[in-house]
Amino acid sequence: MQFSDVHPVSREEAPLDLRALLQTRFGFAAFRPYQEEVCRTVASGRDTLLVMPTGAGKSLCYQLPGLARRGTTLVISPLIALMEDQVAKLQKQSLRAERIHSGRDREESREVCRAYLDGRLDYLFVAPERFRVPGFSQMLARRRPTLIAVDEAHCISQWGHDFRPDYRMLGEHLPLFRDLTSTPTPVVALTATATPAVQDDIVLQLGFRDCSKFIHGFRRTNLAIEVVERNPSARPGFIEALLKDPARRPAIVYAPTRKTAESIASTLSSKMRTAAYHAGLPLRERDAVQERFLAGDLEVIVATVAFGMGVDKADIRTVLHAALPGSVEAYYQEIGRAGRDGLPSRAVLLQAFIDRKQHEFFLDRDYPSVALLGQLFETLGDRPVDKFAARQHVTANDETFERVLEKLWLHGGVGVGAEEQLVRGNATWARSYDAQRSHRLDQIDRMSRFVRTNACRMLQLVRHFGDRNDAAARCGSCDICAPRERITAALDGVAFENSRAKSSRKGAVARDTDRPSRGRAVNASDKPSARGTAKRGGEDDTSEMPIELFEALRAWRRAEAQRHGIPAFRILPDSALISVAKVRPSSEEALLAVAGFGPSRVAKYGQQLLGIVSQQR
Ligand code: ADP
Ligand code: MG
After folding, report:
1. Domain extents in the chain
2. Would the CATH topology of 18-215 be identical to that of 223-358+482-505?
3. CB neighbours of 269 closer than 8 A, spacing ≥ 6?
């Protein structure tokens, strides 16, 4: 084997020198802040929780100790794209990395399992839903990994909007291959976005007993934060005036909805090289926009939250928020993209009271009341009932009913069969759902408090994440610490009127019915809006539904759900199938314009759906 000299199988030898490994295997000259300490702790076999901002270099904190411990590091990662990216990077460095997820065929996965069992892998990346496959954990347990890394670990916490039931099962399965009888395989949990409550939940869910916690690096010394109150109609003009100074570009403007992103982009584009970026654009166009921005050909991107993941542009001078973000975690993540080069940069947040109302509206829509979920739960028993029969007992429209069912399922209150028959689940759903809903409301509260509070903005952020090593000094540069140095000071008292918004869609920011882009992080693009109202080329609600096509689509969905062992509505909701049946898209582009479809759904199911539609012509 090519690397057998670097990876002796014996566990008896002393751990390899971490610094030497850093240079020879990863090609880095030095550790970044905290990396060495974390790597040493993880290599020593302690369970570890690591919370550091995006871009801080968390991956190294499992990749390096894994090599040092000699053996295979098992990496649990929630997103296929992230996984593919990491594996490709490691393979380029001649490290033996492989992955198992739903995008790979059976034979590929089988070969990866063989390589794992033969000890031919340094890293095995696995999607959390794999643990639902019978026998998978047992297969892994046949050869003990030397380290287990849980990436994006906030997904395991029931407090978060990214909560993934598949991650939840990890807690059950980990003991199987941690071998708790002798020295257990250490686990390292990594995340960029966990408040103290979420941190505690991760520790609890993963069954850490005596763990080390590293919560670091949230203070940004070159970033000056400003908060400005402005009504939605005045915001495009304000943004334009602010970005007119070329020294404030390149810039990212975060908009609450796709529509707002497009309208602000068109306001700016007569004055500076600007483009919109959101999940409703074809993948090719998004890639092109991103590339042009990275290359400096575009100076301003007006984006929904879909933009920014993995964007490594060091010289962004300004990050502007055109509306109140849905959580401090999301806000921090987004402003963190400014000034990666260490030069002075600004984050400007525009908001007004109406933004909070908007978030509350979306909360009620996305998280139906406990009482509504209760209506469904009460109609269920041990004998399976048809979904449409149960639906009669819930006072909600179709769209809300689908959400009620999904939430109840996520929290264990209902079992869903392949034919969408429902059986009563566990009564504990109410507590956990209520906790999640309250947490979401709390996130909105905290964000509102952040803009209202007269305390140093940076200090508020550092405290929010519970960075206890921080010296707790005022930043000296935010609008609270240094009001006279605000770049927005020159615009105080200036009235702005956005002519476009005025003439066509007054108050559009506040009234938009798109899904708000704030407050959802990693898998936001997995759940595109199913609301038909704002979609281009959406179906006409009064048009007749072609029943045959709809039934063909349902049959396909049923098979797909069975194959993955999940309820049909997790593949696609009824509303999405109805839209496809009505619109009959004939290309991926056309499918992307159908309500309920974003790039990730199109990538996953596009070809299959288009195939079914074309057969029914
Ligand atoms: P995170 O997971 O914390 O968001 P990553 O692990 O993806 O961050 O690392 C961000 C970038 O920093 C990557 O391109 C990585 O190669 C680079 N990086 C990590 N550690 C170092 C280091 N010690 N020296 C130089 N670059 C590093
Ligand atoms: Mg990462």
Report:
1. 18-215, 223-358+482-505, 516-617
2. yes
3. 275
Q: CB under 6 Å to ligand 1: residues?
A: 28, 31-32, 35, 52, 54-60, 192
Report the C-alpha gap between 542 and 236 in whole angstroms. 36
pLDDT at residue 162 is higher than 90: no
CA pair distance 65, 188, nearest whole angstrom: 10
Q: Which helix (H) or strand (E) holds 166?
A: helix 165-168
Three-class SS state of 99: strand
Which residue's alpha carbon is nearest to atom 15 within ligand 1? 57
CA distances (Å), 95 to each of 237, 305, 395, 608, in order?
51, 33, 56, 35
Which residues, 6 or more positions from 268, have their beta carbon under 8 angstroms from its beta carbon? 236, 239, 240, 243, 253, 274, 300, 302
> Which of ligand 1's atoms lies nearest the C-alpha of 32?
23
Q: Which two tokens stand for residue 238?
A: 């304000």
pLDDT above 70 (res 511): no
For the CA atoms of 118, 124, 126, 130, what is the dihedral angle to 10 degrees? Answer: 10
Residue whose CA is at the smallest distance from ligand 1 atom 12: 57
The C-alpha atoms of residue 323 and residue 508 are separated, in whole angstroms, by 12
- pTM confidence score: 0.76
- Taking 70 as the threshold, does the pLDDT of residue 451 lie above it? yes
Residue 483 alpha carbon to ligand 1 centre in Å: 35
Chain mean position to CA 356: 22
Q: Do residues 385 and 413 lie in contact, with contact meaning Cβ atoms separated by under 8 Å?
A: no
In this prediction, residue 293 has a pLDDT band, given cuts at 50, 70 and 90, of: very high
CA–CA distance, 468 with 475 (Å, rounded to integer): 16
The ligand 1 atom at the shortest distance from the C-alpha of residue 61 is 6
Residue whose token pair is 């490594």: 312
- Given the CA of residue 31, which atom of ligand 1 is nearest to it? 23
CATH match of 223-358+482-505 with 3.40.50.300: yes
**CATH architecture of the region 18-215:** 3-Layer(aba) Sandwich (3.40)
Beta strands in 19-138 (DSSP E): 48-51, 73-76, 97-100, 123-126
* Cis omega (within 30 of 0) for bond into 78: no
In sequence order, what are the beta bridge partners of 74? 124, 148
- Nearest alpha carbon, ligand 1 atom 5: 57
C-alpha Rg value of the chain to the nearest Å = 25
Q: How many C-alpha atoms does 140 have within 13 Å on its Cβ side? A: 29
Q: One-letter amino acid identity for 378?
A: E
Domain formed by 516-617, architecture: Orthogonal Bundle (1.10)
Give the position of tokens 């179906």.
539
- As a three-state string, the secondary structure of 296-362 is CCCCEEEECCCCCCCCCCCCCCEEEECCCCCCHHHHHHHHCCCCCCCCCEEEEEEECHHHHHHHHHH
Q: How confident is the model at residue 249 (pLDDT cuts 50, 70, 90)?
A: very high
Residue 447 tokens, joined: 């964000």
pLDDT tens for 20-37 read: 999 999 999 999 989 999
What CA–CA distances, in Å, run from 206 to 50, 64, 80, 173, 369?
Answer: 13, 22, 22, 10, 29
Q: Which atom of ligand 1 is nearest to the CA of 59?
A: 6
